[in-house]
Every structure is written in C-alpha cells, then in structure tokens.
Amino acid sequence: MSMLVRAAPLRAARVAAARQQVRFAHFENVVDKTIPTSVNNKFGLAAKMGIYITCGFGLPFFASWYQIQKAKGA
C-alpha cells in the first residue's frame, strides 16, 4: 500500500514541472519578423550564411587533406 501512497505525489510533481515553461525571448509572428535577426541587408545576410555554410561543410575536407599531406611528408 505504501507504493500507491508514494506514487501520487511523485506523479503530481512531474505534472506540475511539465506545465511551467520558461521563455527567454519573444518574437512577433508577423511577416519579415520570423527569425531573430535583422534582414535589412539581404546581400550581407546571404554572404554571411554562405561563408558560414561553406566553412562548416569544407572543414572536414580540409582537415583530411591536411592529414594526408602531413603523412606524405613523414
């Protein structure tokens, strides 16, 4: 019987914790405001995104090339 008595408060604590949500920022859901950055300069944003994506995608290839070149010299 003691298992049933202990289960109810534990279940209530889980439900209470799940209901509480903490939001750190609020963005209006209107046109041109769906991302938390300013898109006044679309070319600048496209250039920054292109550089970011290129560096992230190319880094493993550069690292493998560097390791192969290092192994050839040894």
UniProtKB/TrEMBL annotation:
The chain crosses the membrane at residues 49-68. Pfam families: COX7C. The keyword Transport does not apply. SUPFAM superfamilies: Mitochondrial cytochrome c oxidase subunit VIIc (aka VIIIa) (SSF81427). Pathway: Energy metabolism; oxidative phosphorylation. InterPro entries: COX7C/Cox8 (IPR004202), COX7C/Cox8_sf (IPR036636). It comes from the Eukaryota. GO terms for biological process: mitochondrial electron transport, cytochrome c to oxygen. GO terms for cellular component: mitochondrial inner membrane; respiratory chain complex IV. The keyword Iron does not apply. It is a single-pass membrane protein. Keywords: Membrane, Mitochondrion, Mitochondrion inner membrane, Transit peptide, Transmembrane, Transmembrane helix. Its main location: mitochondrion. It is found in: Mitochondrion inner membrane. Component of the cytochrome c oxidase, the last enzyme in the mitochondrial electron transport chain which drives oxidative phosphorylation. The respiratory chain contains 3 multisubunit complexes succinate dehydrogenase (complex II, CII), ubiquinol-cytochrome c oxidoreductase (cytochrome b-c1 complex, complex III, CIII) and cytochrome c oxidase (complex IV, CIV), that cooperate to transfer electrons derived from NADH and succinate to molecular oxygen, creating an electrochemical gradient over the inner membrane that drives transmembrane transport and the ATP synthase. Component of the cytochrome c oxidase (complex IV, CIV), a multisubunit enzyme composed of a catalytic core of 3 subunits and several supernumerary subunits. The complex exists as a monomer or a dimer and forms supercomplexes (SCs) in the inner mitochondrial membrane with ubiquinol-cytochrome c oxidoreductase (cytochrome b-c1 complex, complex III, CIII). Belongs to the cytochrome c oxidase VIIc family. This is Cytochrome c oxidase subunit 8, mitochondrial.
